[in-house]
Each structure stands twice: as C-alpha cells, then as structure tokens.
Amino acid sequence: MHVGEQYHEFIQTSPRDQAVRDRFLKMALDLLPEGADVLDFGAGTGIDAKTYAAHGHLTFVYEPSAAMGEYLAQHCRDEIARETVIATAPPLTCKVQGVTANFAVLNHFEDHTSLFEDLSHVVHQGGFVLASMLNPYYLGDVRYGWWRANLLNLVRHGRYAISSESRIHRFAPRVVARAAAPYFRLERLSPRGLGLATDLYMFLLFRRV
Ligand SMILES: C[S@@+](CC[C@H](N)C(=O)[O-])C[C@H]1O[C@@H](n2cnc3c(N)ncnc32)[C@H](O)[C@@H]1O
C-alpha cells in the first residue's frame, strides 16, 4: 500500500482517482457555507485540506499515519504556517460544519458506531459528514476471488473484510447508516441503482440531526 509521498504522487497522477476527487470536492464545497470550518478526517497527504483552505475554510486535519502526516506537513506548510490548516488528534475537540473522509477512510473501520458518536460532538446541528467509501457492489471486483467468496456475507450481513487487503472492510450503505443513527441521518447516496455496479466509490452524505 502506498503512503506518504508515494501515495501523493500515485493518486495525483491517476485520472480515474482525480475524477473521483473532483466530484467529491465539488460536493463538499457546495455543502459548506461560506467561511464554515471543516474537519478532514483521515486527511492523508493534505490534498483536500489544501483545497478547502484555498476556498476560505478553516480546515482541521486528523491523520493517524506518521508517513501521511509528515507529507501533509510539507504539502500544506504555508497553510499550517498561516493557521488555515490545523492538525488535530483524538479526542477531537474542534467544532465544525462539516467532516469529510475521502478515499476509503471509513473502510479502515470495522464498525462505525463509536466514530459517529465522537463526530456528533464535532459537527454542529444541521452540519454534515461526507464520506467516499469503497462500493461493495462494484462489478469490476467480480473478477477477484475475495469478492465472490464474500458475496453471501454481503447479502446476509451487508459487510465483509478482506484480510489480505490490510483488513479493509466493505459495507452496504444501510450498515453505515445504522451505525450513524441516532446522531446522523443518511441524506444522500450516490451513485444509486445501476451506477452502484459501475463505480468503485460511493459517496454517503450524513446530516447531523
Ligand atoms: C486512501 S487514504 C485517503 C487519504 C485522503 N483522505 C485522500 O483523500 O487522499 C486513507 C487514509 O485513511 C487513514 N486512516 C486509516 N485508519 C484511520 C482511522 N482509524 N482514523 C482516521 N483515518 C484513518 C489512513 O492513514 C489514510 O491516510
């Protein structure tokens, strides 16, 4: 798995990932009122954080990987110096309008119940959590043995984990929505219908209730 500078270079030069990032950023920026604060949760190397800050949003970042965090400090050094990007760590005490978790951050969790409870203290009422997660229904994965081996788990339990992939978990949207309640309500899922067969990533928008 790529980390730090390697991840940064890889993801920035992949047209497919770039297109996904552009869509995600547009959705996040459209959701954020002017000047609203945001927390980029699992911020990686700070690609999105730099964009939020450039659009006038005070941006808190949480990134548990040292290699990712070190590269973030380099990539966002000007924003960190100007205090428009601020590194934070659990327990998360910042108060923001929106939390974003781009590119499968939530797939690193086995269960999201305590995460959403923690985020309920971070997000203002009416605010949001926007996550892009690996789509368990993506037909491009059918060629892999692990996908076929877990199909029954997906149908029965709405979730499965792949040990060979650093314990990356995949979830049906309803399972994440259940974990987010009672603090957050799933407001939007995209794509829907047939799009779920063709897109590697799905976007889930949760509204703080
Ligand atoms: C594929 S990277 C995405 C990074 C960044 N969000 C982006 O858009 O490029 C997944 C990130 O999730 C982070 N991560 C893993 N476990 C996490 C956890 N428990 N809490 C927060 N972030 C986590 C990883 O360190 C990694 O930076």
What does this structure look like?
- This protein has 209 residues and is an alpha/beta fold.
- The protein has a single domain (4-208), classed as Rossmann fold.
- The protein has helices at 4-12, 15-31, 47-54, 66-75, 77-81, 113-120, 145-149, 151-157, 173-180, 195-198, and strands at residues 38-41, 59-62, 85-87, 96-101, 123-134, 159-162, 168-171, 184-190, 201-208.
- The strands form two sheets. A seven-stranded mixed β-sheet has the order 3-2-1-4-5-9-8, sandwiched between helices. A two-stranded antiparallel ribbon has the order 6-7.
- A hairpin with a 5-residue loop joins strand 6 (159-162) and strand 7 (168-171).
- Helix 1 (4-12) packs across helix 4 and helix 6 crosses helix 9.
- 33% of the residues are buried.
- It binds S-adenosylmethionine.
